[in-house]
Amino acid sequence: MEPGLREQFDRAVRADPGADPGEMAKAAMVHGGRIRRRRRLAVAGAAAVVVTGVGAVGVMALPDSAAPPAGPPAMVAAAMRLPAPECSKDPVAAGATDAAVFLHEATDRQRSAIGRALHDDERVATVIFESREDAYPRFAALWADSPEFVASVSPDSLPESYRLRLRDPAQFTAFSREYATKPGVQEIVGRICPQSAPVGGGAW
Amino acid sequence: MTGTVTPSRPAEDAGSEPKAGWAAARRHAKAAHDAEFTAFVASAGTRLRRTAYLMCRDWHLAQDLAQQTFAKMYAAWPRLRTGTNLEAYSRRVLMNLVFDQSKRRSASEVVVAELPDHADRGSGTPELRLALIEVLARMSVEDQAVLVLRHAEDHSIDTVAMILDVSVSVVKMRNARALARLRALLGDDFRAAD
Q: Is residue B186 within a helix (H) or strand (E), and if so which, with residue range?
């Protein structure tokens, strides 16, 4: 008898190494809880700043854990820095494989000068420019569960960035020191990522 | 005198201030949600991981995708737990993760291992298995999703359309195209009810 497609699919997954469902649930709850808290924090931060205009009460809306009162730009900046799941959670000062170069109020000329420098830089393997327009749909998709937060953020408040992968992680420190002082650059966030991660190591 | 008040709540609520009671109620609700969620993962985990495998053909990555899917679902669990088709929802989250990943891959020009152009298909079973997987790998990720959801998972055309958030006619079109491609590449090695 000829095997049907369904049986072929069944056979293709026969090598399933399996996983402990209890462990899976536990890990999902830890990670999922973190996603939930992060969103709540972001919404609270965005909301707080909207209210501060009215009175000091707004500051009270900030959860105790949010260190300094953070306005939407800061919250957005924090959201921008979310690492891709494959990458190191915290930014590193040395040994980064990937980096995001965030720009702040860069003029056209500054932006293209940085882009040219990165493209010509021997240490950079791949570089992608992420404009505000590129960033916004991904930002909105990532925070789809918090429409209030998304609505409070306009594309203009998202930073532009260059996302890049270095040829040699050992060069990151020198690379970062050099670019951090270029006009228009606000910050460089480096992460350690496997090849499979998105270039730049950001969640989006 | 007030000494006769008997605490009617469990010991952890003994503070009996409204706030403490509220916190305890929240804790209880959370524990109940967590139990529900754990049961859901136990019942859905294996199939989800296998579906992820068919989409990415790497068990390690499949586990990772399943794990990410569950984490996202847990983050939205209070909203999802009632009135949502959890299975369909989990497929939707998974497929979006797969689509994102394939988009990022092509955007970042990272070289991914290419499968050989000629599948060395013999007549034995393991070769047959390889062949299906390899043929899948050569299709667009959208067509793969339709094939996997429709034929590996047995979802109806309507459900597939809902999961992928496209129209029924798009699903039918992709399904027909993908099946034709599969037939052409696999030859007579398979038969499928459309």
A: helix B168-186
Instruction: Give the total residue count for chain B.
Output: 194
Residue A99's SS3 state is strand
The sheet that has A185-191: what strands, in order across it? A124-130, A161-166, A98-103, A185-191
Phi then psi for A125, rounded to 5 degrees?
-85, -45
Alpha helices in chain B (DSSP H): 18-56, 59-75, 77-80, 86-108, 125-137, 141-147, 157-164, 168-186
Distance between B149 CA and the closest CA of chain A, angstroms: 11
- pLDDT for residue A196 is more than 60: yes
- Model confidence pLDDT, tens digit, residues A102-159: 998 889 999 999 999 999 999 999 999 988 888 888 777 777 766 766 777 777 778 8
Q: Do B74 and A32 touch (CB under 8 A)?
A: yes
User: Residue A79: its pLDDT value, please?
Assistant: 64
Give the ipTM: 0.73
Do the chains contact at A5 and B188, CB–CB below 8 Å? no
DSSP state string for A169-196:
GGGHHHHHHHHHTSTTEEEEEEE---TT
pLDDT in tens, B119-140: 444 444 555 545 788 888 889 9
Provide the β-strand partners of residue A128. Answer: A163
Q: Is A1 on the interface with B (CB under 8 A)?
A: no
CA dist B91 and B193 (Å) reads 22
Q: Which two tokens stand for residue B36?
A: 């529900």
| pTM, two decimal places | 0.53
Cβ contact A111:A159 at 8 Å: no
CA gap B141, B103 in Å, rounded: 10
Closest CA to A200 of B95, B141, B109: B109
Find which of B129, B130, B150, B181 to mutate to test the A interface (most A CBs within 10 Å of its CB): B129
Six-digit token string for A76: 């957005």
pLDDT band at B68 (very low <50, low <70, confident <90, very high): very high
Specify the DSSP element, H or E, that contains A126: strand A124-130
What is the pLDDT at residue B189?
58
Q: What residues form DSSP beta bridges with A99? A: A164, A190
Average pLDDT of the residues of chain A: 78
Q: How close B1 comes to chain A (CA, Å)? A: 39
